[in-house]
Amino acid sequence: MSALLEVRGLAKRFASRAGREPSPWIIQNLSFSVNEGEFLTIIGPSGGGKTTLLNMIAQIDCASDGEIRFQSQIAPVNDLKALKPGLDCKIGYVTQEDNLLPWRTCIDNVLFPLQVQGKLNDETKARAQNLIRAVGLAGWENHYPHELSGGMRKRTSLIRTLVYDPPVILMDEPFGALDAQTRLQLQDDLLRLWNLGRKTIVFVTHDIAEAIALGDRAIVLTRQPSQVAGEHRITIPRPRDIRGIMTHPEFVDLYQRIRAQVQ
Amino acid sequence: MATLNSTGGPGVGVLEGNALLGWLYSRRDQILVLLILIAGWHGLSLLLGTYWIGTPWGVAVRLYNGLLNGEIIRHSSYTLAEALAGFAIGGIPAAVLPFLLRRLPIVTAILDPFMVGGYGSPKLALAPLFILWFGIGLESKIALVAFTVFFIVYFSTLSGIRALDTKLVQMAQVMGASEAKVARYIIFPGAVPHIFTGFRIAMPYSIGGAVVAEIISANRGLGYLIQLRSMNFDTTGVFVALVAVCVVVFLSNLVVNVVERRLLRWRPPSDVTAQKE
């Protein structure tokens, strides 16, 4: 397997304002890579620069040092003006907040990326309908975001990225704000959808259990400045049963090892 | 068919009667306030005499006659035409300009003090100038209304563009939206509620502006009517014209609200009146 996405020596500190101490490093000397078709989970403490890392990979924020290679090409990550958000629609990004457009209905939000990419046709529309059915949103297509529950909004936000099929999808604690039951359901939905397509996913979370249950490999980040504290291959066979996985012997073992690394 | 109609007819009539009663019932608070205002008005006219304040009944009779002989409608339509023309001439560029200036923050900053000055300048003091420049016809009234409306809508639209969540813009860019598509699909729809707030605030000002300009110098319109009748010490007549101004403002506000509700269906009901409905 070849590395689809490679992060080398990445560092980030926010620009200091005149007359103030330079702001501390948020990320320093961070390196890892993601293989084609791999589900990578990244565990880090809250406020550990996880969102900043994904913002840099998604090309909506620039790095202070280091490089990011995507499909062996160096991404223009060091210059704010040269950034190419989403790098030509190849990097999808499911953000922490759902960021749905409040003036568009559920289905119109899902169709939004296809519309701006000029790929709106019968085939892609059918694909959107299939995704809506697959995550149990049938019957809610014509509702506005404020009329949907938190879980439904999250599902809409998730399939809005899946619908245009980017080779890599970044996910920033997408299920963080949900209740435990909805969270399990959505994790289950995500695994089911992933099993159909086996896309490359970089999934960031502060929840160790979530990271083990979903991923092929988990990377543990240190406190600020973030660096890789440890790396764990997860060989629990798929398809996984998200509700019963807590009792799997490998899960228990991994959980303890990862918890020792998370400070 | 005939039997169906004859049985259906009265039933429909009863339903319509109920609908009217229901509407009146739902508006009972407003009707109560209206009755109290009219009662207070009547009390004052009894107390001070009809020379100072015309009675509500006298005003109603004059209004009815004015409507019958077309006088009120004619003058109202002049005023309304001036207000609408000024509203369009001032409001549309004001809603477009902030979008053009969006990528030019320096130009926006240079223009800002002038915009604030225009926004804050007393329009009543400007009316004589506009009449001097544009004559006593429709043009000077339209110019004053346009000048008034422009700044209100400009600042509303500007605040709408500034209030937009940058995360929505980033989301669209990640999905491959070009600059033009971000403007069309994110920034414009996001600013529409603010543009409408501007329109809603500017609408009564546009009619008020037209009336004020007419009072200063005109030979037609509701403002002219007010001016003419007060010169003749016709208090009741002034009240008739004032009621007509109120009705015109009320109806135009109704139109703005209907259009706004149609365009902004996506918004969650946030104010108390919306929840009551």
Instruction: Give the neighbour order of strands across the main sheet of chain A.
Output: 6-7-8-3-9-10
| First-residue to last-residue Cα separation of chain A | 32 Å
CATH level 1 class label of the domain at 3-14 and 23-90 and 166-261 in chain A: Alpha Beta
The greatest interface here is:
A-B, 28 and 23 residues
SSE sequence of chain B, one letter per element: HHHHHHHHHHHH
Shape of chain A from CA axes?
A: globular
Can you identify the CATH superfamily of the domain at 3-14 and 23-90 and 166-261 in chain A?
A: P-loop containing nucleotide triphosphate hydrolases
Question: What would the CATH topology of the domain at 3-14 and 23-90 and 166-261 in chain A be?
Answer: Rossmann fold
Helix-residue proportion of chain B: over 70%
Characterise this structure.
The complex is a heterodimer of chains A (263) and B (277). Chain A has helices at 50-57, 106-116, 122-134, 150-162, 180-197, 208-214, 249-261; strands at residues 3-12, 27-35, 39-43, 65-70, 73-74, 91-94, 168-172, 200-205, 217-221, 228-233. Chain A has 263 residues and is α/β, with parallel strands linked by helices. Chain A has a domain at 3-14 and 23-90 and 166-261: Rossmann fold. In chain A, the strands form two sheets. A six-stranded mixed β-sheet of chain A has the order 6-7-8-3-9-10, sandwiched between helices. A four-stranded antiparallel β-sheet of chain A has the order 2-1-4-5, covered by helices on one side. In chain A, strand 4 (65-70) and strand 5 (73-74) form a beta hairpin. The two termini of chain A are 32 Å apart. The mean pLDDT of chain A is 90. Chain B is mainly α and 277 residues long. Chain B has two domains: 2-46, no CATH class; 51-276, Orthogonal Bundle (MetI-like fold), CATH 1.10.3720. Chain B is 84% helix and 0% strand. Chain B is globular. The two termini of chain B are 37 Å apart. The chains are: A alpha/beta (263), B mainly alpha (277). Chain A binds chain B through residues 58-60, 85-86, 88-89, 91-93, 95, 97, 99, 101-105, 112-113, 115-117, 144, 146-147, 161, 164, and chain B through 165, 167-168, 170-178, 181, 185-186, 189-190, 192, 264-268.
